[in-house]
Task: structure prediction
Amino acid sequence: MPPAIGFVMLPEERVVTWLAIGALCWAMAPDPAAARGAEAGPFEVESHLDVPYYDGPEAHPVRHKLDLLLPKGRKDYPVLVLVHGGVWMGGDKSYRGKYTAVGKCLAGIGVGVVLPNYRLSPAVQHPEHVRDVARAFAWTHRNIARYGGRPDYMFVGGHSAGGHLAALLAVDDRYLQEHRLDRRAIRGVVCASGIFSLPEFSFTVSLGTNGEGWDFGWSPLRLVFGSDPRVRREASPIHHVRPGLPPFLVLCAERDLPTFARDSKAFYEALRECRNEAEFFVAEGRTHWSVLFAATRPDDPVVRKVAEFITRYVR
Result:
């Protein structure tokens, strides 16, 4: 008989399991909205692709580059640095055109969009992912005026693991302070199906035949955040919530992966309890992926909500 393979999850939490399953489904499934491309808004989109944002000693030839999708002919426009998802271990700034289509839609209605790559686990561990996002944000802050954008109208956002990184950048000043910036440089934060708490999680893999074999314990979070629970706590945006944070738009999907809607609502409520400006929005009929990947038309409810949020905080 072939060896039997079994998985036994420990009871702490299942968010990383759903992230891993989601990443696999995400990689395999085509997305019709991305395939159609973004519907044109009033502005033509000007693209600058694969722009290096970091040239330090550990600069990566691919992961330290970003794309600029900008409203051609418009001046003094707001800018959204939009961070891709992928369980901190996969994905990229375009992801088969999905993030590019979202960025082009927003650029078409007058919002400049910056799509950065960042280094991935297991090649690096936390905090290198968020340090790269801080580098991309700081580069944009220094350079966007050359492209017509307003450095004082900058927002940061992200999807899934990218939502975690965007939120962490905004609530933990350490990463922007490396670039002589702080959270005051962020006009607002947009998190789509993000992760805001990082509990311990592990499961056991059993390999064997007729009950005889070997058990291997494994924690997916350790590939990204290591084994120290204090590091996971420090990396959890919800543990940094306090008064005086930038405004947040917290989005989740009506049919999101298990735990994501609950985690998003808990983060929103923590923000409000500390008297921060925050809005919670559930995208009807959407899944963990389509909550953002279907946002490719100016009349899409998520696009409208993001545009309203940005407009509110640049006045």
Notes: The longest helix spans residues 128-143. The longest strand covers residues 149-159. The radius of gyration is 19 Å. The chain has eleven helices and eleven strands.
